[in-house]
Amino acid sequence: MGSLHTPLCDLLEIEHPILSAGIGSAAGPDLVSAVSNAGGFGVLGISGMEPEQIRRLIGRTRELTERSFGVNLIIGEDGSDLAEEDKQLLRDEVATAADARVAIVLFWGDPAPYVDIAHRRGANVLIQVGSVEEAKTAAEAGVDAVIAQGVEAGGHVKGTTPIWDFLPQAVEAIHPLPVVASGGIGDGAGLARALQLGAQGVSLGTRFVASDEAWLHPAYKQRIVEATAEDTVLNELYDLWWPGAPHRTLRNKTLEEWEAAGCPPAGQRPGEGTSIGKLGISSGEIIDSPRYGGAGTPKPDFEVDIEYAPLWAGESVDVVNDILPAGEIVRRLARQAERALAEPPLA
Predict the structure, then answer these.
(1) Residues 22, 78: contact at Cβ < 8 Å?
(2) How does pLDDT run across 252-275, given as a tens digit for each residue?
(3) Domains in the chain, start-ordered, CATH in brackets?
(4) Which of the chain's ends, N or C, has fewer CB atoms near its CB within 10 Å?
């Protein structure tokens, strides 16, 4: 089975312990199927979608791959703060995906209300967490695996400590439950290191942003390739629609103009209330994408300067140096990791 095979591979029915993160609408059927067809585990971004939309996306993905894959859903900082209609939508989303026999990957909140819904339908549940305490709570809730997110991650970040410190702590705290490492990992060396520290796999977002199949603007992908870790900033600037959620992005015009203005608070920021382009939302509606909006990731049809949009990116940009087909990314990571694990340890 090879040196990369872990119990997570058996759980998810995959060849390589490599997950692509469900990075919103950028993680569509093309990306997900490419990752899964290469032996990894692709994850669809479906948060906020109605059940019928979810069924269509899952159906389209199944047309492209016979392999297993998952879906990503955002719970919210605290499920108790969600309106009842939002709670019901989330329950319906979980049930719809689980009925289709795909794994549920949750983020940012308590998984407990959703684990039984998925398990009754035969689906696995994973949740991304940012602390040992969260990992323990998730384990007690009955999840099938935990994704430990380090502070190096791109996009919205629950992690507050480096992944290489957090990972072994999480592994020890919830053993033998599988732990997947996320944040700052973008090559085979990172995958090998994670496995050596007890992880059973890795979940990668930034590396798959720079893939042919990611539904994102080419200029955004190129920025990922050209950036270094020092070009990423952990901030809370893109807080419209999701306040109080730290995130890591690349430096761009929005950030620079805000810093030049003295970092004013919300309501006093440069260009606040202006549109940076058009944005398609999960309902299918096209709306204005406001500056500082957390959902304004530049898609291929984005017609305004992408430097005013949030360019989500993790510190793994240091090792992401090319735009490749997603399947080749999976295969390359696996080859690199196998070589790294076969090398004798340094004296």
Answers:
(1) no
(2) 999 999 999 999 999 999 999 898
(3) 7-214+319-342 (3.20.20.70), 218-316 (no CATH)
(4) C
